[in-house]
RNA sequence: CGGGGCGUGGCUCAGCCUGGUAGAGCACCUGGUUCGGGACCAGGGGGUCGGAGGUUCAAAUCCUCUCGCCCCGACCA
């Protein structure tokens, strides 16, 4: 591509509305432009990279035996009502109505659509397993789109769905997908880790996320030396019970206007771990009280799993008062047994004297003993692991880091097949629900993640396999005849050799071209100038290291080809 | 949804407090000089100051409403 003819609007300055490096660089390098919050057009350069990523994904999915399809973006609401997600997914689901007032959704994911197809065409165990995938546009009405392509409302995703006769078959495919994902992210030149994760509204139990390591990542990852790794929504931790304390009698204490754990702990002069934090939620229509240690944060993902995935919301101050009798900030489990479902964190101990809200304005209770003053039968891990916590497997302190979620694989089981009636007949003619798995990759998010992970003060540094071009030719002075002829000849030779070449044939000053080249981030640059030509050489410059190799003009084409091929090979 | 910030040529911003001729740099067009890391000189085009209403002789500037964008929080398949 000749830069003189390319639509590649680069910017000298950072856009005012971008925060992340990847976002700034994608705008500055002319890869994309914004139309509205979370809605972008990909320009030629951005689309080239996206296609490269998609192609790697496609090759690896095909290699793993999956078949590509194209599912609709717009789907009838009925399918989503059948699966239950019409109700269970909240505001993130884009809903749409047609002229006849029929309801539709803009697909955020496509379990319903594939399941609808498979249930109509798979009757026999002989037809299974199947693994269908697509690469397409997804819509999510994000509460807060941000960070450019990292969290957009419209984005490109690869989603695959597998169908099986049993868990063993599912496990095989799950493993194949795990390997395919590892190859994909490796080929894309990314540093990543696989972690146990929360399955959210998609459902199912076993699932793993693939996280690209980056400080700017939105996800927190816990990992320990033994190999345990989990997202913060999922991460468990080991804990040691504190010694039991002598029983003491329950006591009311006036705590005027002391509502938060910090306030109450300071007011009473005790540690926050002495308090019980009681949070009133609604799981759909059902109110429930989550009780956790005062020094811990509630993990909504864990709570949601415990209550079966119904949408959760915190109760309003009015609802709290109506149910507990006391205002917000003075809630506690005492006296609520039988009135409301209570779930206690597993680390709560029978033998301790806790401080809790008194369900009365300005009153807290001291020396509350579980089992004596309040009974919480239902127990579950409800809190988020934190820095310094110990690994649930090996007991070592876990390392905390941040990551960008680029892939997520799930064993779904029969959630969708049962809800939507997708069955098959086994060899004995008996009917069973089809066992499912699903596997997603954020294609456009990979583009952003790759930049996030590989850039410097001057711009992007592409890994060769997803670089928009393999090599960038910069004639220092395009008007100087020898320079121009040499550059033209090299451009022709490399193009002829099927390399993807960006050729800066513009009549610009050298500084401008160098800056643009660094910004765009093509991994290999050939600089052709009078100085070098006088000695019969051109310069090959590595974008990442800045190292310059001087090669004779006659060998330039071969040298470039060798280096590009080597760079493509190492990461595939 | 709660809190905060910002909307002024294509981009980055000043001007607003204290009302009175719409500005700068970059980008763009013309001519010239220049040419190994975002040049210089001269000339030029381009903005109903997000929108609506109000106050005023007069509004980018003050008031009300509204829309959009960004950040923090909540949320996230």
Task: Please explain how this structure is put together.
With 572 residues, the chain is α+β, with helices and mostly antiparallel strands. The chain has three domains: 21-235 and 400-452, BirA Bifunctional Protein, domain 2 (2-Layer Sandwich); 251-380, YbaK/aminoacyl-tRNA synthetase-associated domain (YbaK protein); 460-570, 3-Layer(aba) Sandwich (Rossmann fold), CATH 3.40.50.800. 28% of the residues lie in helices and 28% in strands. It contains 15 helices and 31 strands. Strands 3, 7, 8, 9, 10, 11, 12, 21 and 24 form a nine-stranded mixed beta sheet that branches. Strands 16-14-15-17-20 form a five-stranded mixed beta sheet. A five-stranded mixed beta sheet has the order 28-27-29-30-31, with helices on both faces. It is globular and about 95 Å long. The two termini are 25 Å apart. The mean pLDDT is 93. It binds one RNA strand of 77 nucleotides through residues 9, 11-19, 34, 36-37, 85, 89-93, 108-109, 111, 138, 140, 142-144, 146, 151, 199-203, 218, 300-301, 314, 408, 410, 440, 458, 474, 476-477, 479-480, 508-516, 518, 527, 529-532.
State the helicity in percent bands.
25-40%
- Beta strand %: 25-35%
Major sheet: size, sense and barrel closure? 9 strands, mixed
Q: What would CATH call the homologous superfamily of the largest domain?
A: Bira Bifunctional Protein, Domain 2
C-alpha Rg (nearest Å) = 29 Å
Shape: globular
The count of strands amounts to 31
Mean model confidence by pLDDT: 93
CATH class of the largest domain: Alpha Beta
Uncertain stretches of 5 or more adjacent residues: none
Q: What fold name goes in the CATH topology slot of the largest domain? A: BirA Bifunctional Protein, domain 2
| Shape-level CATH architecture of the largest domain | 2-Layer Sandwich
Q: What is the total domain count?
A: 3
Number of helices: 15
Classify the secondary structure makeup into a structural class: alpha+beta
Give the CA-CA distance, first to last residue: 25 Å
